[in-house]
Design brief:
Elements lengths: L1 E10 L8 E3 L2 E3 L6 H7 L16 H4 L7 E3 L3 E2 L10 E8 L23 E8 L4 E9 L3 H6 L4 E4 L4 E20 L4 E2 L9 E6 L6 E16 L7 E4 L10
Parallel strand pairs: 3-7
Antiparallel strand pairs: 1-8, 1-10, 2-3, 4-8, 5-8, 6-7, 9-10, 10-13, 11-13, 12-13, 13-14
């Protein structure tokens, strides 16, 4: 038995992280990777103090990877990537390094230099709407909804987002299908057979669209006869890395 939810995120303030950096511009694109959503939703937790500086996604999600699959979040149809509310600001501040070496006046290598830290940030502002899908294997829709918090925090400055869920009907099929929502590039063992469009993001790229051949699940609104969202049946967080 597989249950599914459509989850809508509504930003309640500024959310910032560097999707890409162009010169001195740090740009936040309107996509949240599932590497962030697993932690934000409380499905995984990392180390409070990290001395190894190595990703621990596989270990942190090992207990839930087979049971819960979270897709990346993308702009909802009502907004679209071009209509996302983004705010651009310029900053000129002192360094925010965690530790600053304090030299004596005679030994300071930067004593005669003016070294400001400046640049621009483009962030997601209030009122953005993004959608992702949550699959629960061996769970009912009600049990799945109980696992989802009402609010989460995302980004470098822990911006707040409201979470709303809607249960979906789930059907299974086998054959050729078109991906209906972005997934992580390592989240399925299936190989695209055509129409592949990817998006470079860190730490994992996104598959934005693709055609596949194999088992899939189709997610539709309750009681709807419209075409649904099709995803690989084996979709698992970082499936090909496990």
């Amino acid at each position: 038995m597989t249950a599914a939810l459509e989850v809508t995120l509504r930003t309640q303030g500024e959310i910032w992280f560097a999707s890409r950096e162009v010169g001195r511009l740090a740009d936040t694109e309107p996509y949240f990777l599932n590497t962030a959503l697993y932690y934000a939703l409380g499905f995984a937790s990392g180390r409070y103090v990290d001395r190894s500086f190595e990703p621990t996604y596989l270990d942190d999600t090992d207990a839930v990877a087979d049971e819960l699959y979270v897709t990346p979040a993308a702009p909802s149809d009502s907004t679209g990537p071009g209509l996302a509310n983004r705010i651009t600001s310029t900053y000129n501040t002192s360094s925010d390094d965690y530790a600053t070496i304090n030299y004596s006046a005679q030994e300071d290598p930067d004593a005669k230099q003016n070294l400001p830290t400046y640049g621009r940030r483009r962030v997601l502002g209030h009122g953005n709407e993004l959608t992702f899908y949550l699959l629960g294997r061996g769970l009912s829709a009600g049990e799945l909804e109980l696992r989802v918090p009402g609010y989460i925090r995302l980004g470098k400055k822990r911006g707040k987002a409201r979470v709303e869920t809607e249960p979906l009907d789930v059907s299974e099929g086998d054959g050729e299908f078109d991906l209906g929502h972005p997934i992580g590039a390592y989240d399925t063992a299936l190989t695209p057979v055509g129409n592949l469009v990817t998006k470079r993001m860190r730490p994992t790229p996104l598959i934005m669209q693709a055609s596949y051949e194999g088992a899939y699940v189709e997610l539709t609104s309750l009681g709807s006869d419209d075409d649904g969202i099709q995803l690989p049946a084996d979709a698992t967080f970082l499936e090909t890395k496990r």
